[in-house]
Amino acid sequence: xxxxxxxxxxxxxxxxxxxxxxxxxxxxxxxxxxxxxxxxxxxxxxxxxxxxxxxxxxxxxxxxxxxxxxxxxxxxxxxxxxxxxxxxxxxxxxxxxxxxxxxxxxxxxxxxxxxxxxxxxxxxxxxxxxxxxxxxxxxxxxxxxxxxxxxxxxxxxxxxxxxxxxxxxxxxxxxxxxxxxxxxxxxxxxxxxxxx
Length: 196
Fold this sequence. Notes:
The protein contains six helices and five strands. By secondary structure, the chain is α/β, with parallel strands linked by helices. The C terminus is likely disordered.
């Protein structure tokens, strides 16, 4: 793999059912300077090659965590990835942390609409409160936190909203990668999407 400025860590356990995340992942592959790393494709047995992952991280200036929010957190394989790859003495807790100075961008979807994240509503608190573990991970590793790109109610939003969300994601990736725009594939070649 050639060096890329942006590493997208994509974690979706059922991408064939994805309505939004798969489109975001496909869009990322169209941006020069971006490497899309599908964790569920690479590690279906959950046995993570730590040396390989650290090599990928070393080549990137920006880490993008792309996934649905599941049980107020991340998919299981991405949590396993964090546990085994980001070890104390390598990613944090040392004088020269390997991730220090890199940028961290969370790109995620929720199944619930935004209004469900409030005191007295279904999830009991503002959505931003559920972001604390993500932001603290970035802080502990000395990474710069980029404001997240979140799509709420991904199961129900209309196609135009999804299109705008994907376009905004791709435009930001191009800025982060310092890449010129590339043409997207025609709509005729895209599959229909289901789920998030």
